[in-house]
Amino acid sequence: MGGVLYMCDLNSESVNSPRITTVYTRSGDNGSTSIGSIKLPKYHPCVHFIGSIDEALAFIGLAIENSSVDLIVRDLEYVYELLLKIASSLKSNWCPSEDLILDIERRINNKVKPNKIITNYVKNPRRGGVALTAITRTVIRRAERWFWQCFHDTSLGCKNIGVLLNRLSDLIFTIQYQALLLEASK
């Protein structure tokens, strides 16, 4: 399949791995793109949603690379894996279960939360990817807004994707606060 990029294990020697022959298809040169079986203009909310998830993945990847606390890395990797599932959800019809959302709520409830309003949330952005985690949360919130517009405008996605994005931004808030505390104690 020329022109289609796949996420794959770069260390894999599998003969079943798709071979990329080109990275362009020219199919979007008219200003439209396909998501699943639906052709949409590139300015459509569903396209913005997917782009926002891609951006969140990039920032959370940077946050993982910059964190020096194993607990924070594990939490961020958990969110990263869920964002990967969300990224393909419009094409794969993956829908998060209620149990998954409840699990994230339990994770949020088990995290340390601020007991007062924090006026300078990112006190030292050079420490442990705290600022990158803040940016990740901002981009996830944007993805959530684009998702709801996409969901209401098309038949793509399921309601629980929006709910999951909302909970992930809350989980990222608690991870960011925990990272701030743990990195500052070093």
Task: Provide a brief overview of the structure.
By secondary structure, the protein is mainly alpha-helical.
Please give a structural write-up.
This protein is 58% helix and 4% strand. The chain is mainly alpha-helical. The chain has a single domain, classed as Cobalamin adenosyltransferase-like (Hypothetical Protein Ta1238, Chain: A, Up-down Bundle), CATH 1.20.1200.10. A two-stranded antiparallel sheet has the order 1-2. Strand 1 (32-35) and strand 2 (38-41) form a beta hairpin. Helix 2 packs antiparallel against helix 6 (159-184). It is globular, with a radius of gyration of 18 Å.
Q: How would you classify the helix and strand content by structural class?
A: mainly alpha
Along the chain, the helix and strand elements come as: EEHHHHHH
Rg (C-alpha, Å):
18 Å
The number of helical runs is 6
Q: Which parts are unreliable, with pLDDT below 50 for 5 consecutive residues or more?
A: 1-9
Question: Biggest sheet, in brief?
Answer: 2 strands, antiparallel
